[in-house]
Write a structure and sequence with these properties.
The chain has helices at 21-31, 48-51, 72-82, 91-120, 128-150, 162-171, 184-195, 197-210; strands at residues 3-8, 35-40, 61-64, 67-70. The protein is of the alpha+beta class. The protein folds into 2 domains: 3-85 and 198-210, Glutaredoxin; 91-196, Glutathione S-transferase Yfyf (Class Pi), Chain A, domain 2. Helix 1 packs antiparallel against helix 6, helix 1 (21-31) crosses helix 8 (197-210) and helix 4 packs parallel to helix 6. The longest helix has 30 residues, at 91-120. The protein starts with a strand and ends in a 7-residue tail after the last helix.
């Protein structure tokens, strides 16, 4: 059965890998599963056909046969469970990898998104100058903890897993801020993730789509 995911018809970041469909593309590339991409406009995202797939009118969605899913964490988890390559065989290591997936989206990403919103949506507010350093410090608090846990290891828990895929995807949102560069081991961790051939294929597929070229995986 053909896997079809949805993505922005024109990504707000211009295809630089920050849109959440990149995470799903990357997971599919890691496990070697072909997929098709259906671009969705901002208008179409709020129409009944797309809302039937994603009740909150966002992207990406995932369709395979009778299955339709939304939420990148759930989609990546499904891919990792169905195909070898993203979750360890050992039951305890597998559980830890899943825990890191949850940590990426539930613990590390929220303050990062808060910082992005503070800059993009609140930058013109009179109180923004005072608030931004406070939000940035909340991000650093999480990165302090993550950096300490990673130490000098290549990945979060043994071999690369879906937990690393999600964590690297989250940290990519900090690239322009320069905050990750304050943590050499996290900067190197991020670079290792971006250097993976599967990530490169996912990134350039999204970039090509935003340049108006066909997007398939």
């Amino acid at each position: 059965m053909t896997i079809t995911i949805t993505a922005f018809e024109q990504s707000p970041d211009g295809g630089k890998g920050l849109a959440r469909d990149t995470r799903v593309r990357w997971a599919l590339e890691e496990v070697g599963q072909p997929y098709e991409v259906r671009p969705v406009s901002f208008l179409a995202m709020k129409e009944p056909a797309h809302l039937a797939l994603h009740p909150f009118g966002q992207i990406p969605t995932y369709e395979e046969g009778d299955l339709a899913m939304f939420e990148t964490g759930a989609i990546v988890f499904h891919i990792a469970e169905c195909h070898a390559g993203l979750l360890p065989d050992d039951i305890n290591a597998r559980a830890r990898a899943i825990a890191w997936m949850f940590a990426a989206v539930n613990t590390v990403e929220p303050p990062i998104l808060e910082l992005a919103n503070a800059r993009l949506l609140e930058g013109d507010k009179p109180w923004s100058k005072e608030r931004l350093p406070l939000v940035a410090d909340r991000v650093r608090s999480r990165l302090n903890q993550l950096s300490a846990r990673l130490g000098d290891a290549d990945w979060l828990d043994g071999a690369f897993s879906a937990g690393d895929l999600m964590m690297v995807s989250v940290l990519l949102r900090l690239r322009l801020s320069g905050i990750v560069d304050e943590y050499p081991n996290l900067a190197a961790y991020l670079a290792r993730g971006e250097a993976r051939p599967a990530y490169k294929r996912a990134f350039f597929a999204q970039l090509a789509a935003n340049a108006g070229k066909p997007s398939t995986g």
